[in-house]
Amino acid sequence: MGTPMPPHHRWTIAAFVLALVTAFAGGVWSMTLSPLEKRAATTTPAAPLPVEQVAAAAPRDLRLGATVAGDGSVVGRAAGSAWAVGRGTLAKIVSGTATVLARGPWSSHAILAPANDGSIWLASGRSLWPVSPFGTVGTRLTPSVGPISAVLAADGRTWVAGTTGTLAWIDPWTGNAIQSYYLGRSSYQLAAASDYVFVSTTDPTQPPIVRLDPALGEAVPVPGAAAGPIATADGRLWWGAADGIRCVVAETLRRCGRIDVASPAIMAGQGRALWVVFAGAHGAELALFDAKNGRSVAGPIVLPGSAVTSVEPSAEAAWVGIRDTGTVVQVARR
Fold first, then answer.
1. Measured over all CA atoms, what is the biggest interatomic distance in the chain, rounded to whole angstroms?
2. pTM surpassing 0.85?
3. How does pLDDT run along the chain (334 residues), one tens digit per residue?
4. I want to staple 321 with a disulfide (CB 3.0 to 4.6 A). Which of 82, 143, 285, 310 is the partner?
């Protein structure tokens, strides 16, 4: 039998054990806290910072800007300037004022399209003219596509479509076809994105929209597409139909969004800006959407006329040609 432990020794051991347990518990607790929690546990809590509630930004308004009358109602853009074409006249718009720089045998239904070199193409009937940034009209070309319905310059190529059903990549100096495709007898609409050319046709015997790969010469129907206006922006193709506007990614043809605007008349894209003209409750209206996701950005605004012929866009503004008023009007974001 051992010798009993003196009482003062028992108190010493008990105190030591208690201190050890407390230290161990404190160590475990500290290991379960993040550095920020440790700091908060050892400092006096600070007063909470004020929080400012920020509401989601609403779509911005659009406003009517400069109006140009008497010089045509078809609008185009090249070399950083807007152009207007009328019956026999071609005018350049600078600071809201149009100056006629050329006259020729084209109609008021002529087509304007930017060229690859910064100049502009003017097409009317079976004829195609190059126009310099200074308004000098070059030698007339007659591509073998019939009456011209669309012109597109993209990725160093010049494309011309005719109502006879021919789409041709042409030599811009001679007008001769380098490659030709038959995609239906009707008027075409052309747009380009991600090195592809998209072709819309109203011929019921053909796919409504095909994606053409110029490098391979292959044409692939766009799945689920419908006949109607088309536009490309931000690597996406948007098309309009009776039940709304839809989009696919140009490279993959994967669906990427929808806009609930039924039966749009004209669409035009630039950067991430998608401009849409449609029939509203008070006549023709124009609205701006984000081309990446279809989000409403600005508008709509009622246009001063009903027969819109063309829209030439930029990120913050667009020129709109209106046939029934014979004017070109600028619409800008506030």
1. 130
2. no
3. 444 444 444 444 444 433 433 433 344 333 332 232 233 333 343 333 333 333 334 456 999 999 998 778 899 988 778 999 999 999 999 888 899 999 999 999 999 999 999 899 999 999 999 999 999 999 999 999 999 999 999 999 999 999 888 999 999 999 999 999 988 888 889 999 999 999 999 888 999 999 999 999 899 999 999 989 999 999 999 999 999 999 999 999 999 989 999 999 999 999 999 999 999 888 999 999 999 999 999 999 999 998 999 999 987 899 999 999 999 999 998 8
4. 310
- Please state, in angstroms and rounded to a whole number, the distance separating the CA atoms of residues 140 and 129: 5
- Of the candidates 294, 299, 305, the residue with the CA atom closest to the CA atom of residue 318: 299
My answer on whether omega of the bond before 300 falls inside 30° of 0, hence cis, is yes
**Rounded to 5 degrees, what are φ and ψ at 307?**
-95, 85
Write down the number of H helices and E strands in the chain: 2, 27
Query: What span, in angstroms and rounded, lies between the C-alpha atoms of 92 and 135?
Result: 8
Show the CA angle centred on residue 202, arms to residues 155 and 151, nearest 5°. 30
Domain covering 62-333 in this structure, CATH number: 2.130.10.10
154 strand-pairing partners = 157
Q: CB-based contacts of 112: which residues, under 8 Å, 6+ apart?
A: 74, 75, 76, 78, 83, 85, 120, 121, 122, 310
User: What are the sequence ranges of the domains in the chain?
Assistant: 62-333
- In whole angstroms, give the CA distance from residue 58 to residue 298: 9
**What's the CA gap between 286 and 23, in Å, rounded?**
73
Name residues whose C-beta falls within 8 Å of residue 46's C-beta, 6 or more positions apart in sequence.
Answer: none
Q: Which H or E element spans position 21?
A: helix 7-31
Answer left, alpha or beta for residue 189, where phi above 0 means left and psi between -120 and 50 means alpha. Answer: beta
In single-letter form, the type of residue at position 101 comes to: L
